[in-house]
Amino acid sequence: MPSTGHLKISDSGMNEPPNYKSPPVVETILGLQFDSVPKLTNAHLGAFWKTLDSNVWSGDIQDVPPLEPALEKFVEQGQWGGFGLNLRLTQDPSSRLQIKNSSADRMIQVQNERIHFNWLGLDGGTYVRYPALRDGFRDTLQQFQRFLEDEGLGVIRPNQWEVTYVNHIPKGTVWNRVDDWHFCGLIGNIPTYPDLIEAENFRGDWHFVIPNQRGRLHIEWKHARRSVSDRQEIVVLNLTARGPLKPEGAGVDEILAGIDLGRKTIVQTFVRIMSDEANAFWGIDHAN
């Protein structure tokens, strides 16, 4: 059930979004998409890994399929279902390298055209606040830029920033039945008629433009089980903000400004679409 709209959140009042004492976030991803670096190969990605601090980045390493480009385009087809996806057919056997730290609660993902910095909390890790993640992303990006220059591979030409928050909202917290899902303002009353129909499931996605076409916010809702072994029912609520950058003028400061906008948009939207009761359950702190 996709829908589109304009996200009317002004910069005023967005200096620092509220914090939650116990947010339902299980993963946060800060990322950058950039123009293809012609000489960058999978072997170079492995060499970049070797430049990282081995005392920190000594966790699991694996190759996974690369992410496809996803440019946000503000044209008519972007409004009606395209949402910036730009699929590519290629014979290039490129891959994405995932590098975890020794505590398995941070991950660097790097491929030709993308670099991401993740906080991973699925295994119950302590929630890491945004400033620490921002610093980790910045330091990783700068180290990757230096690596490209030292190897004579060229420079990064950024084209888009990206932020994703993954939330798991278990049954038995702010909801017990499908028709309790109105704790989120995106979901209206889901009807259950005794002796006729009983609400069972729902899946939907929404797409919003950030004012002045500075980006889009994509929200995905799905009802799922936590895992094959853990049958706990959860709502998975993903919020992803992406916005364009000008390759010729996007330095680290401009990239981080985009990341900041994405994070504020996500957090402010999450606060506004949730009921007062849900926000209180997660321990919202308006003092910030």
- Strand elements, count: 12
- How many structural domains are formed by the residues? 1
Give the SSE order as H and E letters: EEEHEHEEEHEEEEHHE
Which residue ranges are poorly predicted, with pLDDT under 50 across at least 5 consecutive positions?
A: 1-14, 87-91
Instruction: Specify the number of helices.
Output: 5
Largest sheet strand order:
1-9-10-11-8-3-7-6-5-4
Rg of Cα set: 20 Å
Helix share, percent:
10-25%
Distance between the termini: 35 Å
On the 0 to 100 scale, the average pLDDT is: 88
The biggest beta sheet is recorded as: 10 strands, mixed
Share of β-strand residues:
25-35%
Which overall shape is indicated by the principal axes computed on the Cα atoms? globular
What multimeric state do the chains show? single chain
Detailed description of the structure:
23% of the residues lie in helices and 30% in strands. By secondary structure, the chain is α+β, with helices and mostly antiparallel strands. The longest helix is centred in the C-terminal third of the chain and has 22 residues. The protein has one domain. A 10-stranded mixed sheet has the order 1-9-10-11-8-3-7-6-5-4, with helices on both faces.
Ordered list of secondary-structure elements with their pairings:
Elements: E1 2-6, E2 19-20, E3 25-34, H1 42-51, E4 61-64, H2 76-82, E5 96-100, E6 106-111, E7 114-120, H3 130-150, E8 158-170, E9 203-210, E10 215-225, E11 233-244, H4 252-273, H5 276-281, E12 284-285
Parallel strand pairs: 1-9
Antiparallel strand pairs: 2-12, 3-7, 3-8, 4-5, 5-6, 6-7, 8-11, 9-10, 10-11
